[in-house]
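Z., the sequence and structure:
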Amino acid sequence: LAVYQKLIGKFIKKSLSDNQPMTIVQTKWMKRSVVEQTTLEPNYIIISHPKVNIDSNRNVYKGKGNLFFYPASNFLYKNQEVIYKAVKLLEKKGLSDFKVVFTLDKASLPYEDRSIKYVGHISREKVMDMYNDHILIFPSYIESFGLPLIEAALHADIILAADTPFAHELLDQYTNV
């Protein structure tokens, strides 16, 4: 990740500044970032959100508020540590009737607790099912789009998200966050 940020990122920014190509980004915050970090003019940047395919029959949250879900890979910027700290804080306060599900293998993270469950890689269909009765936790520091936020919102899920530009943009009109 450091190589991408420090080395490859510099080449991309220089190329955009030097060549002034038409550029497609997924979100408004990405467009603002490109404009701030390069000399590329805003009119050369097109925003195109990815198409999200969701079964329209799944749109009612049916959970009891004690099951949480984080469908994420194991990168530092995904910020799984904050979830572990929250679990420990809740247990310290005497709350234990909840589960947090990670879509990672147990060996992927150093966090072990009776309230944490590792399910490994699961199918997209299973992820969609999880939105129906689990609260989405999304503490990621940065995302290009944050697909789980959109998927969960389309399922009328309760969402706990980090206070980030991409979360604000994607969930701007959503009230269950």
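Residues 30 and 93 are 39 Å apart (CA to CA). The longest strand covers residues 67-70.

Let me know what you think.
H.
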